[in-house]
Amino acid sequence: MATAALKRTPLYEAHLAAGAKLVPFAGFEMPVQYEGVRMEHLAVRSACGVFDVSHMGEVETSGPEAEALLQRLLSNDVSKLAVGGAQYSVLCREDGGILDDLFSYRLADDRYLTVTNAANHERDFAWFEEHAQGFDAEVSDAIDDYAMLAVQGPEARSIVAELAESELPSRMHTATLGIAGDQMLVCGTGYTGEDGVELLLAPKHAAGVWGALTAAGARPAGLGARDTLRMEVCFHLYGNDMDEHRNPIEAGLGWCCNEGTGFIGSEAIAAVRERGTEQKLAPFVLTGPGIPRQGNAVISGGQEVGLVTSGTLSPSLEVGIGMAYVPVELAEPGTEVEIDVRGKLRAARIESKPLYRKEG
Fold this sequence. Notes:
Blueprint: H1 12-17, E1 21-25, E2 28-33, H2 37-46, E3 49-52, E4 57-62, H3 66-73, E5 86-92, E6 98-108, E7 111-116, H4 121-132, E8 138-141, E9 147-152, H5 156-163, E10 174-179, E11 182-187, E12 196-201, H6 206-215, E13 219-220, H7 223-232, H8 266-275, E14 279-286, E15 297-300, E16 303-313, E17 320-327, E18 336-341, E19 344-350
Parallel strand pairs: 3-13
Antiparallel strand pairs: 1-2, 3-9, 4-7, 4-8, 5-6, 6-7, 9-12, 10-11, 11-12, 14-17, 14-19, 15-16, 15-18, 16-17, 18-19
Helix pairs in contact: 2-7
């Protein structure tokens, strides 16, 4: 049976030239690494890395009732999002199951841009369209309008600032600026636990801006390092750490849910918040050798009590780390458990978030 051809981002040729190892990811041919995951990870922690995240999707919502529509769709309080602001939220079903986690940017009083996860984009956009009925608002699929670069690390802002025509926006804020001669949306957001910015720009400008950033000192980094970086700071990955069968409370995302706004799923989530959950997503570290992986069993008292949702060898901490859904009573930091890593029980300890903290 024929399979659909993989899509390519505007930076495909640049990745080949940089020696990237390309793999299928969410329907795209994406760089998983260049020089090596560990080197790229540590470059982001110590200096600056640049990621091609052009596979992410975008939905534009505009019109007189754009805010009202997004207030119905998104879990956070959209009315608190000022023009030039950024906000994290989840998109939920009526039963509280998580459809996706999203970042929304308010570009004007009646215009928003929402970034979706690549694998969920078509479903998210269909959900937006379906629920826009009855609102004086328009939703449009903007995935082809943007390439997206994430410039992350302690030196990221200084590198981008050298190429910028004016001051960069602060964390969780946005601005339209010229970078390396091209206009783009600059957002003080990221997925690594480091400072930095994400750039949303016309696809035709992506290669030139990528070249300017790497020439200025940003090291190309692939999806492998993006994954290990986000795990160290306990950022969720959709499909691993949350999905439609998990609600935001058990996933530890109750902080981005304001049930008083009446978003879809708010009543179910309010009920869960009130009664509590049986399980909770908890981070852990191995206290001995081993590398935990998604699907490994969590063992307590000789019984399987949960499953690892994300796991890796932390390049910064040099130990195995991960996240797992476990019974609430086992989710307290300091709790000792075991992880079944390929048939061998590895000692582990539940920790608090984030697992990696910068010195000082």
